[in-house]
Amino acid sequence: MARKPVDFIHPDTGEVQQGYIVWVPDKPKFQGFFMGFQQAFIALAQDREITTQPSRVLHYLLGNLDFDNWIHISQKEIGEALGLDKGSVSKAVSLLKRKGIILEAPYKGVRCYKLNHFYGWKGSVTSLKKQERKLKLVKSE
């Protein structure tokens, strides 16, 4: 199908302009987003240890990412959602932790996970910079 420009009248200026008709749905199907860092995704794609199951678990964790990179989800929930047994989820999470992709961190006294901010960030850029400064201070001590 050939795409031809169409004439339309600009609503503010009244000028006749040319453009293309583009279909845009009323509501997006997906909501929620995080900033992903391209070099980190390349590194993940090149890592031969991150096979199908760890990759599926990581994607599920990314889909459940909360602000400041917190992930409040149990391994049981992950297994049920992905149709994986307890052992498979445990191995995948252990691999992701060993590689430093996800970090184990306490949140209000409960063991939770956090996505390493090298891979992506959900939240404001200000809070990301604050996180990076905090980590630099810890490393310099």
The biggest sheet amounts to: 3 strands, antiparallel
Assign an overall shape.
elongated
Task: Tally the helices.
Answer: 5
- Report the β-strand fraction as a percent range: 15-25%
Strand order of the biggest β-sheet = 4-6-5
Radius of gyration: 21 Å
Number of strands: 7
* Contiguous runs where pLDDT drops below 50 for at least 5 residues: none
User: What is the string of SSEs from the N terminus onward?
Assistant: EEEHHEHHEEEH
Report the average pLDDT across residues.
Answer: 88
Helix content: 40-55%
Helix/strand class: alpha+beta
Q: How far do the termini sit from each other?
A: 64 Å
Descriptors:
single chain; 141 residues; alpha+beta; two-stranded antiparallel sheet; 18% strand; elongated
Q: Can you describe what's shown?
A:
This protein has 141 residues and is an alpha+beta fold. Helix content is 41%, strand content 18%. The protein has five helices and seven strands; from the N terminus they run E-E-E-H-H-E-H-H-E-E-E-H. It has a three-stranded antiparallel β-sheet, with helices on one face. A two-stranded antiparallel ribbon has the order 1-2. It has a two-stranded antiparallel sheet with strand order 3-7. Strand 1 and strand 2 form a beta hairpin. The chain is elongated, with a radius of gyration of 21 Å. The mean pLDDT is 88.
